[in-house]
Design goal:
This protein is an alpha/beta fold and 302 residues long. It folds into two domains: 6-115 and 284-300, Nucleotidyltransferase, domain 5 (2-Layer Sandwich), CATH 3.30.420.40; 128-279, Nucleotidyltransferase, domain 5 (2-Layer Sandwich), CATH 3.30.420. The protein has helices spanning 41-56, 97-104, 117-126, 169-174, 188-192, 194-201, 216-236, 252-265, 274-277, 286-300; strands at 6-12, 16-23, 26-37, 61-68, 83-84, 95-96, 109-114, 135-140, 144-149, 155-158, 240-244, 278-279. The protein has a five-stranded mixed beta sheet with strand order 3-2-1-4-7. It is globular. The N and C termini lie close together (8 Å).
Length: 302
């Protein structure tokens, strides 16, 4: 592998795409980055192409790694391999993201995965007191997803955000319907993603930052995220659960989630101290760093 070149990482989220450029020999040093709004596939991917072409004029780019929202078909040989498939984002249903980048940049190695596997790998390998221990990574933003990276780097990536859990007492009383177009109030994403929080508060999702920490909505949302942590714990027993994504920038959520998690687990199984077990990301851009991992791994397979 030519370590003198550069790679592009793309964290493709439902609200925005974050693109970054890094040297292969130092993927933690982001040379340049650019964030763009997620609009239609044609416009968003077209902007990505222009940005990469511009960077390519001054840097020898060898590979692109894309960590994208989903669901994504990752079965090689499938008719829809590399596609975003049945996403709630109507415009993006059955969008061939991998194919777009392979066609646009045929001289580059292009790889793609979910938006939760790469950050799980990055957080597991690169941070904390004991690197390479099993780590669950959850992103909470426009959608909710999860991935578990084990000690041997085998990984489970799943649609855990669409797992069901008990509806909170508050939502039972108000009859809040949730926002998931597939499961209504029957799944965690529909009850705890950014748009559901905004809908409860009667504001636009772009205004979430204006909500105070003592707003009732945060306690309600913590109910669902604590149940997600509980389910992950009981199914996969990771050594830690990292909660990332835009919604988790609200630091008061960690205290609420930890408190409810302890209550719901009720000492059924042993876990590390909860403030060491349910934690924020250590990396400033785990999704982007993870996308760099994808790109560099793609080159190693040549």
């Amino acid at each position: 592998m030519d370590k003198s070149g550069f790679i592009v990482g793309i964290e493709a989220g439902g609200t925005s795409f974050l693109l970054g450029l890094a040297a292969i020999k130092d993927i933690h040093n982001i040379v340049i980055s650019k964030r763009i709004e997620t609009v239609s596939p044609e416009e968003t991917l077209g902007q990505c192409k222009k940005i990469i072409e511009l960077w390519g004029k001054s840097h020898n780019i060898l590979a692109i790694g894309v960590a994208a929202f989903g669901p994504i078909d990752l079965t090689e040989g499938s008719e829809f391999y590399g596609y975003i498939t049945t996403t709630p984002k109507e415009q993006w249903k059955f969008t061939n993201i991998l194919g777009f980048f392979e066609k646009s940049f045929p001289s580059m190695v292009c790889t793609m995965h979910t938006d939760v596997y790469p950050p799980a790998l990055a957080e597991s390998k690169e941070t904390f007191e004991s690197p390479s221990i099993s780590t669950a990574y959850v992103t909470v933003g426009t959608g909710i997803g999860a991935s578990v990276c084990f000690e041997d780097e085998s990984t489970i990536f799943c649609e855990a955000g669409h797992a069901s859990c008990p509806v909170s007492r508050v939502d039972q009383l108000t009859g809040f319907p949730g926002v998931c177009s597939f499961h209504k109030c029957g799944c965690i994403e529909g009850m705890a993603c950014a748009s559901s929080i905004a809908k409860r508060a009667g504001i636009d999702p772009s205004e979430l930052k204006s909500l105070p920490d003592d707003h009732d909505v945060w306690n309600n949302v913590a109910h669902y995220l604590a149940h997600l942590c509980l389910n992950i714990t009981l199914m996969w027993r990771p050594k830690r659960i990292v909660l990332g994504g835009g919604v988790m920038q609200r630091s008061c959520l960690f205290k609420l989630i930890r408190m409810k998690f302890v209550k719901y687990l009720n000492d059924y199984v042993s876990v590390p101290p909860v403030d060491k077990y349910i934690v924020p990301p250590k990396l400033s851009h785990p999704g982007l760093i993870g996308a760099f991992y994808l790109a560099s791994r793609g080159l190693k397979k040549l």
